[in-house]
Amino acid sequence: MKSDGNIKIVSGEESDETVIVLKKKKFPWWILLFLLLFVFLIPISRTVRIHISEKQTGVSIALAETKLTYPEIGLFGKHTSKTLIDTTNTEGKVEFSGIKEPLWYVLFNSLFNDSAYVSAGNECYSSANLGDIYSSFPKNDYKEVKIPPIYCSVALKTIDADDFEPIPGANIQIISIVNDSEDLSSTETDVAGNFEIANMPQCGSVKCIASKEGYENDTLEASLFDLSNMSDLEKTLKLKPLKGCVKVIVKNLKTQTLLPGATVTLTVNGISSAMQTNTNGVGVGLFDSLRISNTISFKASKVGYADTTLEGGTVKDFIEKSEEERTMYLRPLTTSLVFYNTDGSKPLEGVKNEIRINGTLKATEYSNAKGEFTVMGINENDKISITASKSGYVTNNTKVNNAKLENLNTKESRTIPLSTKPTPPPTPPNNNNKQNDLKGESGDLRINLQWYSKTDLDLHVIDPCGNEIFFSKRKAPCGGGTGTLDLDANAIIGTTTRPQENIYWLKPSKGVYTVKVVCFKYREKTDTKLNFNISIVDKHGRKDFSGKVGKGQTVEVTRYNYVD
User: Do the beta carbons of residue 233 and residue 164 sit within 8 Å?
Assistant: First the structure.
């Protein structure tokens, strides 16, 4: 038998057969151990699932930016911190896939205390990193992470919409809506008009309703997030003041009759304004566009009467008062007499009565609807003269002329009748040169002045709005139309002996137009008065008025009532 390595040959001496025996070589066990270690290093891919919800309610939070910071394990155990970022879907869920871990770490991660961190948030929610042991993150389920809402406070303000001043003590109703749940609260503005919405989730919304007596309500509705990004002006509620018109009545205490021409002074918050009661006998004063919350008081005065005052309370209270409670009575200081203007047997309203006492003009009174007017402040020995005039009537200055009290003791003696007069033709000028054509624009209404001299006369017209149109103010709007002076004759340059001045309206307003003639620059050699003519033309025809004016004088020609 021969042996050669692993082969053994055996030959029998008593047999011709040869037996060959092969001995198998042993495999090294350490190779298997090496292969097993290699398998443990194989990287395994996993997915981490996270569900973000609201801490108190558990409501899922969509569109929240989510960060996962986890330990990335190298093949040989090296730990490296790595961060992945994604956004939750509409169900508040997000998945981070493709995370590599060695097999040995997957099998034995329970033996490790590696920490992982999750942070999430948006404009409504925010959290610091929420840490946990990485091995506790479920393999096939979602890691629940609850985050709190962001709370914020917003300061707002209320102001007056007219003067932009703060409104203290305004009532604020606050309707807050968070996760479809409504809550109602109320507060008041401080002395600076401020109030605050405090400690409310930023993604909630509010509706603020501001109110205060004397103002219209205002409402502001927005999310807390939007409010916190608004400008101060956008976060301001503007309350519009309610307004009203007050009417005060002035009467003669002795006669109980309405008293025109009295001065009524209204005081609001220390600021005073005055007006006169109507000069047509109504005796009523109006003040418009007053805040109904303002406290008001009145003072009434007139020459020959003792002043009187009236506390009105608020505008709102005054409007609701009776006529008697809104009436102010002026007590005559001296003897007063009631006179009467008549047209035949009928009372004549709106008569202009120029009252002279001892030759001096003391007052001008207009008769009321009963034809009455009062002369006040008469002493026993005074001599009274009254000139009564009205457009379309013959002036009466003879009925009461240097009369004493003893001569005026009956109603008849104090009645001044006026008779109507036909419209006179234009007075021919001194040179008998008659003017037939009117110069200037016509419109629906025109008022034309003609005279025959190089003297500078000026035409003045006061329209129904109170605007006075003349050479210094050539245009004035009133209602839907504008009055225009288009001819101004005999000024410094370009004098003529046939001058005209003309004012016209394309669309005149209804009402009274007061026509005056002013002698502005007298260029005559004598002091004689000049003749002039006023022509008023509208769709109803033409009316002419004649008159005379002297050096430095102003003459009121007529008060023309224009009707459409």
Answer: no
Burial of 414 (0-12, 13-18, 19+ CB in 10 A): buried
DSSP-based three-state secondary structure for 221: strand
Report yes or no: 455 and 489 within 8 Å, Cβ to Cβ. no
Identify the three-state secondary structure at position 277. Answer: coil
Q: Which of 91-105, 416-430, 548-562 has the least mean pLDDT?
A: 416-430
> Which DSSP string do the residues of 347-394 spell out, in sequence order?
E-TT-EEEEEETTEEEEEEE--TTSEEEEEEE-TT--EEEEEE-TTB-
Distance CA 299, CA 318 (A): 15
| Residue 7 DSSP SS3 | strand
Sequence-ordered strand ranges (E) for 390-436? 415-417
pLDDT surpasses 50 at 430: no
Query: Looking at the predicted structure, is the pLDDT value of residue 159 above 70?
Result: yes
pLDDT in tens, 346-396: 999 999 999 999 999 989 999 999 999 999 888 777 899 999 999 989 999
How far apart are alpha carbons 469 and 504 in whole angstroms?
A: 10
Tell me the C-alpha distance between 559 and 31, whole Å.
131
Positive or negative torsion for Cα 30, 34, 35, 36 = positive
Which of 74, 212, 68, 79 shows the shortest CA–CA distance to 145? 68
Under 8 Å between Cβ of 52 and 68: no
How far, CA to CA in Å, does 19 sit from each of 6, 7, 22, 542? 14, 11, 10, 164
Number of H helices, E strands in the chain: 4, 42
Confidence of residue 143 (pLDDT cuts 50, 70, 90): confident
How is residue 142 written in tokens?
Answer: 């979602």
pLDDT tens column, 65-86: 888 888 777 666 677 778 888 8
Q: 25 is written with which tokens?
A: 């070589």
Q: Tokens standing for 201?
A: 């989730």
DSSP-based three-state secondary structure for 511: strand
Residue 139: C-alpha distances to residues 43, 99, 484, 511 (Å): 16, 12, 93, 94
The Cα angle at residue 117 between residues 114 and 122, in degrees rounded to 5: 175
Measured CA to CA, the distance from residue 286 to residue 315 in angstroms comes to: 13
Strand order in the sheet with 475-478: 475-478, 481-487, 500-505, 445-451, 530-538, 541-549
